[in-house]
Amino acid sequence: MHFIKKRILILLLFSFTFNALGQSKIKGKIIDKDSGTALSNVQITNLDTKTTVVSNLNGTFEAIRVGKYSLKKEGYLEKILELKNDSYYIIQLNINPSQLHEVIINSNHIPKKLKKATTTISVIPLKDIERGNNINIAPILNRTPGVFMQSGALNTNRITIRGIGSRNLFGTAKIRAYFKDIPLTTGNGETTIEDFELNTISRFEIIKGATSSIYGAGLGGTIHLTPKNAFLNQSSINTEISLGSFGLLKGIVNINHGTSTNSFRAVYSNTHSDGYRENNTYNRQTFTLNSNHHLNKKNELYILASYIDLKAFIPSSINEETYRNNPKSAAFTWKQSQGFEDSKRGIFGLSWNHEYSNHTKQLTSIFTSFYDAYEPRPFNILKEHILATGIRSRILGNIKLFDKTFNWTLGGELFRDTYKSETFENLYRNFPNDTGSVEGNQLSNFKEKRNYYNAFFETIYELTKKTSLSIGLNLNQTAYTLNDRFPASENNRDQSGNFKFKNIVSPKFGISHLFSKSINVYSNISHGFSPITLNETLLPDGQINTNLKPETGWNFEIGTRASLINNRLQFNLALYRLAIKNLVVSRRTSQDEFIGINAGSTQHDGLELSLNYEWLQKETLSINSFVNYTLNNFKFKEFIDGDNNFSGNDLTGVPSEVFNTGIDIESSFGIYGNINFQYVGNMPITDSNDLFSDSYNLTNFKVGYRTSLNKKLNLNIFLGINNIFDKAYASQILINASGFNGNAPRYFYPGNPLNYYTGVNVNYMF
After folding, report:
1. How far apart (Å, rounded) are the C-alpha atoms in residues 304 and 117?
2. Is 115 within 8 Å of 520 (Cβ atoms)?
3. pLDDT tens digits, one per residue of 330-350
4. Helix boundaries (H) for 597-683
5. DSSP at 101
6. Alpha-carbon dihedral angle through residues 181, 184, 188, 191, given to the nearest 10 degrees
7. Which of 344, 333, 342 is nearest to 278 (CA)?
8. Which of 259, 294, 262 is closest to 58 using CA atoms?
9. Which of 68, 305, 496, 674 is deepest in the core (most CB within 10 A)?
């Protein structure tokens, strides 16, 4: 009897131990694969027992037993994987491009569904980035309502959002951009994003309208570039080579290695193009590295580094007669001097994410960047060097206030860059043809220190389950110090000095209401401003114009987001008015000299519409279409420049309307393709509105074939044709150009005619 009791006791102990092991908890965290944002309310279902647990606000979860699990969340693709009890899981979910309204965005600091945002935000997912080639960013941005990018060449671009930035003659200004948390905008407000390798970007988040309450000096909006995160628990190498018209040749190597908590991605690219026009050769090499380290349950570390080496010749703009009859020509002086841009750019950032509790966390990023450039132009040779450093930190929290959720964030950004520039005589005219630019005597030597700080606070309060209120506030201080290091003389006065703006306070008020699960309406009022560049403050006598005021504006908008017809139709509509005062314009004082003046105000009224419809969604075949439309009614409300009164005229350099439509097709047997049509309305070239560019339309096409050669090797072959109908058009306009020495003004940058690209992509999984 004693023996039997002993056996029973042993069996009970084994059973208890086995049951305890079987009931041991599995823990983990679920994040957005692209942004790393924690995902709450993910349904984690055991496929055997059908029991379900849900991730909390920090994306963490606990499961009772091992087995296969299904992970589901609106806006993300379902994932099935096996969970074991021997590790802490970090699980990445991919966004579902057909449910973007449900995707969690964090470009407004506080992570939330796009559907509930109180501002107009466009998300460009990886699928849309890959719709065309990976050479030019312009077609991607130009499919976004309210955003327009003119591209005179791969290295000559200007981005406008709701018309802001259209008056900047060369490059992009008055729009902020970030690569992850690293600012891409210099201390004087200029932004360059076209040099980055498209193959390193997983998505864009574009906030449109005045966003200064969050990011400081962003009158037109903010563009967030989200780099491709490295995959966890996966190692692979991806190579791609493509070639095309005008001597295009591009190679990419993409290496990924990931364990359960650490991941690394390195991307190298080499791009060459002879260009369509004379003096149009383009060479660029890039290297991008990012890594994610989940140190423990409360700490994450993210490292990002990027290096770009670019040499691109500049054909510049041409006059109307040459544009009509010989668009391949470069501007005569640029061809004769063989003008080019030779630059090296690098950025490095380190981000730390710490969770103090389930209700409070802190995100801190430190960053540095540099830029070195040598640019021979017909009128002089420019040498530039920029070194920037900064820190950006914010605390995010949520509490219950009157039994309602109150989300808040409090933070700041410190930024400083040192800009050194020198100009030299260009003596190309003194040498035989084909010699190109020759450096002569020094003409100027400046050292400029530029710094700013932003302190910001934003809240989202859920008044009800369907209504949320957002309030934001930003305090900005910007200052410049200029050291003129060129020997002073009667003809070269010392321009050294300090320029400090008054503190600028930018508020934002927004409200969002869900009329139903599928229809949301939002509205907001927000303030924005743009800093004055030091060059605009300099007067011909060498003094600094302390009376010049920064441009400021108020943005008023109302919009709706909807998912209709069983979520097959995604609908976005926004109506807005952006009122700008203290308009800063460049007044030409000589051929190559400009000064800034406050010349009045502008009024930007517009409509932005986007539709995405799923015609067919089967396992074997999917057919989707999109329609995007932008209507611009931008006016000089008051604009007096000297003896000229341009009040009531259309704003220069912005098309009257932009229309995009297209169809995407994918099949289970590997064949895929798309066709895109774009119409761009005419735009004023001069402030007097006596000259307009022609409207134009472009049609692009891409087809490809994907297949798995075995379990580890995947192949993708593609062919694309741009401007199928060989339309002649101006891809960029130089507004208010002047002719000198009897020459006609050079307004036009010709766009590329009919052209093609083709390539092959091979991916190997280790």
Report:
1. 28
2. yes
3. 999 999 999 999 999 999 999
4. none
5. G
6. -140
7. 333
8. 294
9. 674
